[in-house]
TrEMBL record:
Descriptive protein name: Peptidase
Chain intervals for the UniProt region annotation (Disordered): 1-30
CDD domains recorded: M14_REP34-like
SUPFAM superfamilies: Zn-dependent exopeptidases (SSF53187)
Zinc listed as a keyword: yes
Family: Belongs to the peptidase M14 family.
GO molecular function per UniProt: hydrolase activity, acting on ester bonds; metallocarboxypeptidase activity; zinc ion binding
Superkingdom of the organism of origin: Bacteria
Cofactor or coenzyme needed: Zn(2+)
GO biological process: proteolysis
Gene3D superfamilies registered for this protein in UniProt: Zn peptidases (3.40.630.10)
Residue stretches making up the Peptidase M14 domain: 31-308
Entry keywords, A to Z: Hydrolase, Metal-binding, Zinc
Amino acid sequence: MMTTHSPYPVGTPGTPWGDTERSEWRSRQTRQRSYEADVLSAIERLRERFDVVQYGQLDYAPDSYPLFAIKSRGWRDDLPVALVTGGVHGYETSGVHGALQFVDQHAADYDGRVNLLVAPCVSPWAYERIHRWNPQAIDPNRSFREPSPAEESAALMRLVVPFNDRVLVHIDLHETTDTDESEFRPALAARDGKPDVPGEIPDGFYLVDDSENPQPAFQQAIIAAVEKVTHIAPADANAEIIGSPVVAPGVIEYALKPLGLCAGMTNARYRTTTEVYPDSPRATAEQCNAAQVAAVCAAIDFALAHGG
């Protein structure tokens, strides 16, 4: 449903933020959960079965966050690569835990068929604070470009560079939440000094395809798998989802690379961004995680079946 917003508490309406406003915004962010307890402990348990590589370190005084990716133990240079990313927006919980759940429950199914590379929590500072941005009020998911303004994004790009052209499929796990409308869109408008235009949050799962390299059959294979787990978002009265035309049930398109989106960071033929809706009365946290897992498995299965 449509909502109206009060003026955002940081900054002056119509004036983009400077250092003072960013500092004030940062002072309002508090740690609400633990990256170490929730994510690093889960990664540690996976070390027995998979290779774990540290690909960066975020130093946001007084906090410091090691960045880890999980790799197939039997990595082979003659196999294609499947890239799974989660937590690019740290507050999108099922992206993080769905990625970890996929590794734990299903990654072994792909041994000898594809090299798996999973970065489950790209933005740990934001994960702990349940936020979309990093401490500089930068959105990592608009920062996958050179040079990147976000170290979270830059670190992941450095990790992937050696085999960028071997990535067959990349699935980036996200959520669309009620706080997108109540907090994050108003914050974005305030940060950029632009009008805050209320929007509508879709009820259900949807995908973002690449308008410059659309793969409709790939997207529909994922939708078919996920609708067995949770419901698919319908189009709104304008035949849109979050302001973009619905091109197929549960699918919209963005220009991934020009927008600096994570799903556009490689030259993979098959790429998509998932969007789970955790605030629906029709979905549980377990269903949201399971939807992400189903999406990852369907994406890799389709890519392997249809090749490059």
